[in-house]
Amino acid sequence: MIGGTCVRCSGRIAALQKETVAREKARQLSDQTSYPVIYRMLKGIVLCGVCLDALPLIGNDYCQRCGRDMEYQTCIGNEGLCRDCVHGEDGQILVANRSLLRYEEGEKDLLGLFKYRGDERLASYYGTLLAITVQRFYRSIGFTCITTVPLHPQRLRERGFNQVDLLARHLGVATKIPVRPLLRRTKDTPKLSKQRGRVSRQESMREAFAWDGNNMPCVSKILLIDDIYTTGSTLRSCARTIRGHMGPSCEIYSLTIYR
Protein backbone atom coordinates (compact mmCIF):
# COMPACT_ATOMS: atom_id res chain seq x y z
CA MET A 1 0.00 0.00 0.00
CA ILE A 2 1.13 3.54 -0.81
CA GLY A 3 -0.04 6.50 1.25
CA GLY A 4 1.14 9.84 -0.17
CA THR A 5 4.46 11.71 -0.04
CA CYS A 6 6.68 12.29 2.98
CA VAL A 7 7.13 15.97 3.92
CA ARG A 8 10.71 15.39 5.02
CA CYS A 9 12.30 13.29 2.27
CA SER A 10 9.63 13.59 -0.47
CA GLY A 11 9.64 9.80 -0.78
CA ARG A 12 6.51 7.72 -1.15
CA ILE A 13 4.89 6.55 2.09
CA ALA A 14 4.55 2.77 2.27
CA ALA A 15 1.68 2.31 4.71
CA LEU A 16 2.57 -1.21 5.87
CA GLN A 17 6.18 -0.24 6.65
CA LYS A 18 5.02 2.92 8.40
CA GLU A 19 2.43 1.14 10.55
CA THR A 20 5.10 -0.98 12.22
CA VAL A 21 7.09 2.13 13.12
CA ALA A 22 3.96 4.01 14.26
CA ARG A 23 3.09 1.22 16.69
CA GLU A 24 6.61 1.18 18.11
CA LYS A 25 6.73 4.97 18.53
CA ALA A 26 3.24 5.06 20.06
CA ARG A 27 4.33 2.54 22.70
CA GLN A 28 7.37 4.74 23.40
CA LEU A 29 5.29 7.93 23.79
CA SER A 30 2.20 6.70 25.62
CA ASP A 31 0.60 4.60 28.28
CA GLN A 32 -2.39 2.30 27.79
CA THR A 33 -4.84 5.21 28.02
CA SER A 34 -3.21 7.47 25.44
CA TYR A 35 -1.83 4.79 23.12
CA PRO A 36 -4.82 4.58 20.71
CA VAL A 37 -4.93 8.36 20.19
CA ILE A 38 -1.17 8.75 19.70
CA TYR A 39 -1.03 5.72 17.41
CA ARG A 40 -3.77 7.14 15.17
CA MET A 41 -1.97 10.49 14.94
CA LEU A 42 1.38 8.86 14.14
CA LYS A 43 -0.24 6.63 11.54
CA GLY A 44 -1.84 9.66 9.87
CA ILE A 45 1.17 11.98 9.96
CA VAL A 46 2.71 12.77 6.55
CA LEU A 47 5.99 10.94 7.14
CA CYS A 48 7.39 7.76 5.67
CA GLY A 49 8.40 4.98 8.06
CA VAL A 50 12.11 5.81 7.78
CA CYS A 51 11.63 9.50 8.63
CA LEU A 52 9.17 8.70 11.42
CA ASP A 53 11.69 6.30 12.92
CA ALA A 54 14.43 8.97 12.70
CA LEU A 55 12.57 11.69 14.62
CA PRO A 56 14.78 12.93 17.52
CA LEU A 57 12.18 12.26 20.20
CA ILE A 58 12.80 13.54 23.72
CA GLY A 59 13.04 10.52 25.98
CA ASN A 60 11.32 9.74 29.26
CA ASP A 61 14.10 11.33 31.32
CA TYR A 62 13.49 15.08 30.96
CA CYS A 63 13.69 18.24 33.06
CA GLN A 64 10.46 18.57 35.00
CA ARG A 65 10.28 22.30 34.35
CA CYS A 66 11.55 23.08 30.83
CA GLY A 67 11.24 19.62 29.25
CA ARG A 68 14.90 19.35 28.19
CA ASP A 69 16.00 15.81 27.30
CA MET A 70 18.17 14.78 30.25
CA GLU A 71 19.79 11.72 28.71
CA TYR A 72 23.06 13.62 28.24
CA GLN A 73 22.48 16.29 30.90
CA THR A 74 23.16 16.52 34.62
CA CYS A 75 20.18 16.63 36.96
CA ILE A 76 20.68 18.82 40.03
CA GLY A 77 18.98 18.22 43.36
CA ASN A 78 15.90 16.10 43.96
CA GLU A 79 13.43 18.06 41.83
CA GLY A 80 14.47 16.64 38.46
CA LEU A 81 15.62 20.00 37.12
CA CYS A 82 18.35 20.73 34.62
CA ARG A 83 21.14 23.15 35.51
CA ASP A 84 19.52 26.07 33.65
CA CYS A 85 16.23 25.70 35.54
CA VAL A 86 17.92 25.41 38.94
CA HIS A 87 19.76 28.69 38.37
CA GLY A 88 17.22 30.37 36.06
CA GLU A 89 14.93 33.32 36.77
CA ASP A 90 11.16 33.35 37.38
CA GLY A 91 10.93 29.61 37.79
CA GLN A 92 7.23 29.70 38.63
CA ILE A 93 6.03 32.03 35.86
CA LEU A 94 5.58 28.96 33.69
CA VAL A 95 4.31 25.85 35.43
CA ALA A 96 6.12 23.74 32.85
CA ASN A 97 7.21 23.51 29.23
CA ARG A 98 6.95 20.33 27.21
CA SER A 99 8.31 19.56 23.74
CA LEU A 100 8.37 16.47 21.56
CA LEU A 101 11.67 16.77 19.66
CA ARG A 102 15.26 17.79 20.28
CA TYR A 103 16.28 20.73 18.10
CA GLU A 104 19.05 18.99 16.23
CA GLU A 105 20.83 20.20 13.11
CA GLY A 106 18.70 18.17 10.71
CA GLU A 107 15.51 19.83 11.98
CA LYS A 108 16.47 23.43 11.26
CA ASP A 109 16.00 23.47 7.49
CA LEU A 110 12.53 21.95 7.62
CA LEU A 111 11.37 24.36 10.32
CA GLY A 112 12.82 27.27 8.34
CA LEU A 113 10.84 26.17 5.29
CA PHE A 114 7.67 26.27 7.38
CA LYS A 115 8.41 29.55 9.16
CA TYR A 116 9.23 31.53 6.04
CA ARG A 117 7.04 29.85 3.42
CA GLY A 118 4.07 28.65 5.45
CA ASP A 119 3.63 25.36 3.58
CA GLU A 120 0.21 24.06 4.67
CA ARG A 121 1.37 20.43 4.70
CA LEU A 122 4.09 21.40 7.18
CA ALA A 123 1.53 23.28 9.29
CA SER A 124 -0.49 20.06 9.50
CA TYR A 125 2.65 18.03 10.23
CA TYR A 126 3.88 20.30 13.03
CA GLY A 127 0.35 20.76 14.37
CA THR A 128 0.07 16.98 14.69
CA LEU A 129 3.39 16.83 16.54
CA LEU A 130 2.04 19.38 19.03
CA ALA A 131 -1.18 17.39 19.44
CA ILE A 132 0.89 14.28 20.19
CA THR A 133 2.83 16.29 22.78
CA VAL A 134 -0.41 17.34 24.49
CA GLN A 135 -1.50 13.70 24.65
CA ARG A 136 1.88 12.64 25.98
CA PHE A 137 2.26 15.26 28.71
CA TYR A 138 -0.83 17.40 29.22
CA ARG A 139 -3.91 15.31 28.49
CA SER A 140 -5.17 15.44 32.11
CA ILE A 141 -5.07 19.26 32.26
CA GLY A 142 -8.31 21.06 31.43
CA PHE A 143 -7.00 24.05 29.50
CA THR A 144 -9.23 27.10 29.20
CA CYS A 145 -7.65 28.08 25.90
CA ILE A 146 -4.64 27.93 23.60
CA THR A 147 -2.79 31.16 22.89
CA THR A 148 0.30 32.02 20.87
CA VAL A 149 3.46 34.12 20.93
CA PRO A 150 2.61 37.08 18.64
CA LEU A 151 4.87 38.65 16.04
CA HIS A 152 5.62 42.35 16.02
CA PRO A 153 3.48 44.12 13.33
CA GLN A 154 6.60 44.94 11.30
CA ARG A 155 7.77 41.31 11.31
CA LEU A 156 4.23 40.18 10.48
CA ARG A 157 4.10 42.50 7.45
CA GLU A 158 7.45 41.18 6.22
CA ARG A 159 6.56 37.54 6.64
CA GLY A 160 2.86 37.75 5.80
CA PHE A 161 1.74 35.31 8.53
CA ASN A 162 2.60 34.05 12.00
CA GLN A 163 3.59 30.40 11.74
CA VAL A 164 2.56 29.77 15.34
CA ASP A 165 -0.99 30.89 14.57
CA LEU A 166 -1.15 28.17 11.91
CA LEU A 167 0.02 25.63 14.49
CA ALA A 168 -2.58 26.83 16.99
CA ARG A 169 -5.34 26.42 14.43
CA HIS A 170 -4.40 22.78 13.80
CA LEU A 171 -3.88 22.07 17.48
CA GLY A 172 -7.23 23.59 18.42
CA VAL A 173 -9.04 21.36 15.94
CA ALA A 174 -7.17 18.27 17.16
CA THR A 175 -7.68 18.92 20.88
CA LYS A 176 -11.03 20.78 20.84
CA ILE A 177 -9.43 23.53 22.98
CA PRO A 178 -10.46 27.05 21.88
CA VAL A 179 -7.74 29.30 20.45
CA ARG A 180 -7.73 32.89 21.68
CA PRO A 181 -5.25 35.73 20.99
CA LEU A 182 -4.30 37.27 24.34
CA LEU A 183 -1.16 39.28 23.58
CA ARG A 184 0.31 41.82 21.20
CA ARG A 185 3.98 42.42 20.66
CA THR A 186 5.09 45.95 21.52
CA LYS A 187 8.83 45.56 21.03
CA ASP A 188 10.49 44.60 17.74
CA THR A 189 13.27 42.51 19.23
CA PRO A 190 16.16 41.07 17.19
CA LYS A 191 15.86 37.39 16.34
CA LEU A 192 16.93 35.39 19.37
CA SER A 193 19.25 33.36 17.15
CA LYS A 194 21.21 36.57 16.49
CA GLN A 195 21.61 37.44 20.18
CA ARG A 196 24.53 36.22 22.25
CA GLY A 197 23.99 34.72 25.65
CA ARG A 198 21.12 34.11 28.03
CA VAL A 199 21.31 37.51 29.73
CA SER A 200 21.08 39.34 26.39
CA ARG A 201 18.01 37.33 25.44
CA GLN A 202 16.33 37.94 28.77
CA GLU A 203 16.90 41.68 28.54
CA SER A 204 15.65 41.92 24.97
CA MET A 205 12.37 40.22 25.91
CA ARG A 206 11.68 42.35 28.97
CA GLU A 207 8.28 44.10 28.56
CA ALA A 208 8.09 42.93 24.94
CA PHE A 209 4.37 42.05 25.14
CA ALA A 210 1.12 43.71 26.20
CA TRP A 211 -2.27 42.27 27.16
CA ASP A 212 -4.74 42.15 24.28
CA GLY A 213 -7.38 39.71 25.53
CA ASN A 214 -10.82 40.22 27.03
CA ASN A 215 -13.63 38.31 28.71
CA MET A 216 -11.29 35.68 30.12
CA PRO A 217 -12.33 33.73 33.24
CA CYS A 218 -10.58 34.86 36.41
CA VAL A 219 -9.16 31.39 37.04
CA SER A 220 -7.63 29.83 33.95
CA LYS A 221 -5.22 27.22 32.70
CA ILE A 222 -3.63 28.57 29.54
CA LEU A 223 -1.59 26.65 26.98
CA LEU A 224 0.98 28.98 25.38
CA ILE A 225 2.57 27.68 22.19
CA ASP A 226 5.67 28.50 20.17
CA ASP A 227 7.89 26.52 17.81
CA ILE A 228 11.15 26.36 19.82
CA TYR A 229 12.12 26.61 23.48
CA THR A 230 15.72 27.85 23.58
CA THR A 231 16.29 29.80 26.81
CA GLY A 232 12.56 30.24 27.51
CA SER A 233 12.91 34.05 27.59
CA THR A 234 10.14 34.66 25.06
CA LEU A 235 7.68 32.29 26.70
CA ARG A 236 8.36 33.64 30.18
CA SER A 237 7.89 37.21 28.97
CA CYS A 238 4.51 36.24 27.51
CA ALA A 239 3.55 34.37 30.67
CA ARG A 240 4.56 37.31 32.86
CA THR A 241 2.27 39.63 30.89
CA ILE A 242 -0.66 37.20 31.06
CA ARG A 243 -0.28 36.66 34.80
CA GLY A 244 0.11 40.40 35.33
CA HIS A 245 -3.40 40.80 33.94
CA MET A 246 -5.04 37.55 35.08
CA GLY A 247 -3.43 37.31 38.51
CA PRO A 248 -1.37 34.60 40.23
CA SER A 249 -4.22 32.05 40.16
CA CYS A 250 -3.75 31.77 36.37
CA GLU A 251 -1.63 28.72 35.51
CA ILE A 252 0.37 28.95 32.30
CA TYR A 253 1.91 25.94 30.60
CA SER A 254 3.95 26.17 27.41
CA LEU A 255 4.20 23.77 24.49
CA THR A 256 6.78 23.79 21.71
CA ILE A 257 7.78 21.47 18.91
CA TYR A 258 11.46 21.60 19.80
CA ARG A 259 13.55 21.85 22.95
TrEMBL record:
Gene3D superfamilies: 3.40.50.2020. SUPFAM superfamilies: PRTase-like. Belongs to the ComF/GntX family. This is ComF family protein. It comes from Brevibacillus fortis.
